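tool=predict chain=A
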Amino acid sequence: MKTWKIAGVSFDHMHMGDLLRQVSVHTNAEIVGIADDNPGNAGSVEMVRQQLSIPQERVFQSCEECLEKAKPDLVILCPSTGRHAEFVERIAPAGVHILVEKPFAASLAEADRMIAAVQAGGQQMVINWPLAWYPPHLTSKRLIDEDLIGTVCEVHYYDGNRGPTRHLMDKIEVPEEEARRQAKATWWYQKSEGGGSLLDYLGYGVTLGTWFHGGAVPEEVTTTTWARPGIEVDEHSVSVCRYARGLSKYETRWGTFTDPWTMQPQPKTGFIIVGTRGTIASYDYADSVRIQTCEKPEGFDLPVDTPRTGMRGPIEHFLDVLENGVAVHGPLSIPVCRTGQRIVDAARLSSEQRRPVQLQELP
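tool=predict ok
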């Protein structure tokens, strides 16, 4: 089988290390290059290089140099949210496939620039949402598709972590004092770079929410946000989406009591999905989902599915798509992601203007 040549470009997001680790253990993939033109990311680049034993000669100073010399088949992009469109437009002319780490973009207009750039070259692009690979959420979608709970009419989502400067790749913890010192200096806390908990986490909720809702689009979005004094981006947001079938709530939080991958905070992170004939509680990292049905209103726990080959992570899935011509997994597909971006744009506008925003106001 073909050995896929994969490069990682821009280390603004700590998930670059996690994604490249998936490449390093894939039997049909090879890391042929890493690149970052931001001197401020030199430490992150070197950390990943050492952790994954990437030869020094495969480190490049720009994405253009990496494309020219390493000649990858696929590029993983992890720039700040505000630079997603810029990087896709720089890389797409090379004709390589592109995996963009979430979120989609800082705005719908920028998302559409990304779509246009890859369509012009005929290659594929996916947006990776790590929650899309959690077995509880995959299991919940299967149960919805099997009509276990009837028609979905509510999605309740709460997610986040202690803050984006509290951890590195592989969830390595950063001491609290150091994290606070870094906060204002990082792109995560800069509005111009697409920082804030809303842009970081709302896309997760509304993109998977669109998937759970079967592609339904809300008619109206109402959002409010909160931030500590002296911080220019939000650290907490609540969005209420009015669909034809009812209301759904999507809440994002930097500052959870604990990180969910270490110990679930209260409220628990994940989803509660309400249908016309039942409910599903699907929490991040759980080994079971909690279900109520008309036949068993007292509820019962169902062990999560074991993901099949090709559905165990973004690198494996994208390569499976490219090799076998299968469909891109729902939340990673451009139509579902674009719907999610429309909702995110509506939420941001609602927060700024302090009013409900109808989706028809947006493109």
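The chain is about 30% helix and 25% strand. The CA atoms of residues 5 and 72 lie 5 Å apart.
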